[in-house]
Design goal:
By secondary structure, this protein is mainly alpha-helical. The protein has 16 helices and no strands.
Length: 407
């Protein structure tokens, strides 16, 4: 009896430790989405304060995506060479100082530049979190762990715009970046005191450009990697198109306030939370490959309704909310499964693979957000049209790539 009780206690302790690790990894992953979603309700006030336009302010979103894309390519090799902790902490400190500096910017050009630097730091958490999932959990569990991370990540679009709208309305847009600095400090403490080290440093790995490029190319040309990474990247770009276009669509076209926009954004993001948890149930019966294919068919259908409904002027605010909710819910299935399938072939180079996956996803996302900003007009068509095109591209990539994975 005593042995059974001791074993039960040990199992409980292991489960608690596992939960804490997943929570920390989720918070690291959520720092990026929080950096995006928190300041969206402040776009109009930022534009007024810096004597600019919301379209110009939206370019700070593109610069953030570019910074994350480039930064991940840097951190991937560093995480493999020096281990996970040191590069991760350096990145978080860069993010912290950049967040504080943004409080003092006086022009939209400065905002765009410092957001780029902020992204270079913050992306360390995203790369390290994905690599640590591969380090700390069996391959058979990674899709489920990514679904649990998605639960934490998906909370940010629910909480962040609402918090951002409240903070902007009461304390001004500068307070948003003070909040982000505090979140970075919390992450630093969690990483230093409670996060396991993960894979050991690979002292044989060269940091010279040629070997690094060769290693990235070796990862990229793996059929399973490029198929599911590009599929997931195009699917996620529909989300980025929505993020870039929604402040204009809801606050300027539909005339909602910052607080109302925060609530709308949160309600729509709830679909991500629900879908990511339904995904863990479906994985007990279906493979990740099957779930991804069905998911993308649904995304294309929702995207078509958004696009053609906008062209025919059939969509008002509430139907827009419902259709975007359906479209973005598919991301709760696409993200965890494409991520797990992309990283599955790699054990030794998980950091490099994670970095390349994130760089491709955010690089495509940066181009999509810039395109939405450049095509901005007095309609919702730039947002809904690009969302539909992203869904078509994701499905096309999956159809083309899966045949090569099987070869």
């Amino acid at each position: 009896m005593a042995f059974v009780g001791l074993q039960t206690f040990k199992n409980a302790m292991q489960n608690n430790k596992r939960t804490l690790v997943i929570l920390i990894l989720g918070l690291l992953s959520a720092l990026g989405p929080f950096s995006i979603d928190l300041y969206l309700p402040g776009f109009p006030e930022i534009a007024r304060d810096l004597n600019s336009t919301t379209g110009r302010v939206a370019l700070s979103l593109s610069s953030y995506f570019i910074g994350v894309s480039i930064g991940q390519m840097i951190y991937g090799p560093l995480l493999d060479r020096f281990g996970r902790r040191i590069p991760l902490l350096i990145g978080l400190f860069i993010y912290l100082f950049a967040s504080v500096y943004i409080v003092y910017v006086t022009s939209v050009d400065s905002l765009i530049l410092v957001r780029f630097v902020q992204a270079l730091g913050g992306c360390a958490g995203m790369v390290a979190a994905r690599a640590l999932v591969r380090d700390l959990f069996p391959v058979t569990e990674t899709a489920k762990v990514f679904s649990l991370l998605m639960l934490v990540i998906a909370v940010s679009p629910i909480v962040a715009p609402t918090l951002g709208g409240f903070a902007t309305a009461h304390w001004g847009w500068h307070s948003i970046f003070i909040i982000l600095a505090v979140l970075a400090a919390i992450n630093i403490l969690l990483v230093y005191f409670w996060l396991p080290l993960g894979a050991q440093p690979d002292t044989t790995m060269s940091l010279k450009p040629r070997p690094i490029i060769t290693k990235f190319w070796t990862v990229f040309k793996t059929p399973q990697f490029y198929t599911y990474t590009l599929t997931g990247s195009f699917a996620a770009s529909g989300l980025y198109a929505y993020i870039a276009g929604s402040p204009h669509v809801f606050m300027e076209l539909y005339g909602v306030s910052e607080k109302q926009y925060g609530w709308i954004f949160g309600i729509i993001a709830l679909g991500l939370v629900i879908a990511s948890q339904v995904n863990t149930v479906l994985l007990k019966k279906y493979t990740s490959q099957k779930i991804v294919k069905t998911t993308l068919i649904c995304q294309v259908f929702a995207g078509a309704l958004l696009f053609f409904g906008t062209i025919l002027n059939l969509i008002e605010m509430y139907s827009m909310i419902v259709l975007v909710f359906l479209f973005l819910s598919t991301q709760g299935f696409a993200f965890p499964n494409t991520s797990a399938l992309s990283l599955a072939p790699f054990e030794k180079n998980a950091g490099t693979a994670s970095a390349l996956m994130g760089a491709l996803q955010l690089g495509i996302g940066a181009m999509i957000t810039a395109l939405v900003s450049m095509l901005s007009n007095e309609t919702a068509l730039p947002m809904t049209g690009i969302m539909f095109l992203c869904a078509l591209a994701a499905f096309g990539m999956l159809y083309w790539g899966q045949r090569r994975v099987k070869e």
